[in-house]
Amino acid sequence: MAEVLGVAASVAGLISLADIVVGRGYKFLRTIKNAEKTVKSLVHEVNVLSGVLHSLSNTIQLLEEDEDSANFDPTTQVHYIEACYQTLLQIQCSFEAALPSTPLSIGQKIRWPLRESKTKELLADMQRHKSTMVLAMSATEMSALLKVLTRQDAIQDGIRGLKSHLESDREERKHIIIGPSSRSCVCMSIEA
User: What are the boundaries of the signal sequence (predicted)?
Assistant: First the structure.
C-alpha cells in the first residue's frame, strides 16, 4: 500500500510541475505573438499530458482504496514517472530562461532559448510520456475491471450456493409439512 501511495504522490508531483509548465508556456505564448510552431505544440502537449496525469491520479486513488492492491508493482511506474519529471523540468527551465524576471527595456526581445531540433526532441519526449501514462492508466483500469469481474463471479457463485441451499431447505420443509398430512390421507383411503 505504501508503494501505491508513493506512486500517487509522484503523479501528484508531476501534475503540479505540468501545471506550472503549462502556465509558463501560455505566458510565453502570450508574450511572444509569433512563437515557433514547435513551442506552441510543446505547450499543447504538456497541457494534454497534464489532463492524462489527472486521470491517472484518479485511477491510482481507486487503487489506494482497494484492499486487494497488494499485488500492484510500482517499481516500473516510478521509472517512467522520473523520466517524465526530468523532461518537464527541462521545459520549465527553458521557459524560466526565456521569460525575464524583470520588465524588459525598449528594444529587448524575449527569445526561446532552445534550438528547434532540441524543442522537437522535447516534444517527442512529451508525446512518448503521454502515451506511456495513457497505457499505464488503461492497464490500471483494466486490472481494476478484471478485479470487479472476478468479484462479480464470486458473488454469483455465492448466490447460486445460497439458492441451492434454500431450495434444498424448502424441499425438506415440504416433506416435513406434507409428510404427516399425506400419510393421513393415505390412511383414510386405505380404511375406506
Answer: none
Is the Cβ–Cβ distance between 98 and 112 less than 8 Å?
yes
Q: Where are the chain's structural domains? A: 2-105+112-151
| Continuous H helices in 32-115 | 37-65, 75-98
At 35, give phi and psi (nearest 5°). -65, 155
140 Cβ contact list (under 8 Å, min separation 6): 56, 59, 60, 63
- Locus of grid cell 400419510: 183
Residue 108 CA neighbour count, 13 Å, CB half: 10
For the domain spanning 2-105+112-151, the CATH number is: 1.20.120
Distance, first Cα to last Cα, the chain: 78
Q: How far is CA 97 from the centre of its chain?
A: 33
pLDDT digits (tens, 9 = 90+) for 41-91: 999 999 999 999 998 888 777 766 765 555 555 544 677 888 899 999 999
